[in-house]
What we know:
Elements: H1 2-19, H2 25-28, E1 32-38, H3 56-63, E2 66-68, E3 71-72, H4 78-87, H5 91-94, H6 103-106, H7 113-119, E4 123-128, H8 168-185, E5 202-203, H9 213-229, E6 235-241, E7 248-249, H10 252-255, H11 282-285, H12 298-328, E8 335-341, E9 346-347, E10 353-354, H13 360-363, E11 367-370, E12 380-381, E13 385-386
Parallel strand pairs: 1-6, 1-8, 2-12, 3-13, 4-6, 5-7
Antiparallel strand pairs: 2-11, 8-11, 9-10
The protein binds calcium ion.
Amino acid sequence: MHRLLNRHVAFAASALLIxxxxxxxxxxxxxxxxFIAVDDLRPxxxxxxxxxxxxxxxxxxxxxxxxxxxxxxQQAVCxxxxxxxxxxxxxxxxxxxxxHSHFRSNHPDVVTLPQHFKQHGYHAAAIGKIYxxxxxxxxxxxxxxxxxxxxxxxxxAIRFGPRYYYTEEGITAAKSIYEKVYKPTNPGPEDWTxxxxxxxxxxxxxxxxxxxxxxxxxDSAVKTLQQLKDTDEPFFLAVGFIKPHSPYIAPKKYFxxxxxxxxxxxxxFPANAPAFAGHGSGELRRYTDQPTSGVISDEQQRRVRxxxxxxxxxxxxxxxxxxxxxxxxxxxxxxxxxxxxxxGYHLGEQGxxxxxxxxxxDSRITLIVRAPGMKAAGKSNESLIDLxxx
Length: 390
Ligand SMILES: [Ca+2]
């Protein structure tokens, strides 16, 4: 308890340091918030000391922000992590510990973070993945047509998708798996692109950035910032990217940034750890080009790691476009920027692929906060904090 208290005091002190940097209290109280969520982004970024990763835009943001070095999610799964952050309640308090339950089912009157801003005169809007796609009745949305919580936003949330594959090989595999597996068991849209179909784990199509989901999110965010620039109302704009979540798909030019991708140095599951602390890497094995059990070859492991890095660089470029627009419009002068990853990720360390464990690679997250004129700009913070502290 004492440690917890210290931790909250440490984070509050950091927050105060951020807030005390403004010279105009009246202006400060109406600062906008640009809230950027990145799905499954562990802190494998240049600014976190991973210099082999190409993340110039996030690195630039970090250089003018506070980078939290010991930030953790409450639970390393999308829905519990995001629900906990957005409601300010821990997973066991809000009753959401999996991807198929909605927080309004047990707590219909909880006030979410954007809802709080909305109730205080802010325009709250969302583009892309902010909540995990779950309907309040508990059904998971495979159509990605919901942001999961209408009460949070001033206007209907914008969400694209769910198409994944763009190369001839990827499309063929996705169509095939749709006909064989998805259609017989889960009749729905006749078009495979309208369902979440898991084909190959990686793909590097030669397409413009905006052909993919996250490029569409970026286009929409840029347009929205241009519109918000001319309004008097302060805003809370949430922008959510879905890469580097699997399948690891990014335009080929981002794959070309990497060569000779290495395997991790520790690939053995900890000798004395209980089996339930790990898993069978089912998240990776569900893809058609991966073995359903047994050894994943070094070549496949390198390819997946390579593709994860490519996805990071693709997202970095999208974040760069959004932040450039914030600067171009002058909104960066009165806008707080929060960038976070909903949880970490295993890329073969300890013999694990994917998320959900409580090991460091899954639980440690990316968290960067920038406020206009902050005195702590460019510093890192070693305080032990978690996402609920936001
Ligand atoms: Ca996630």
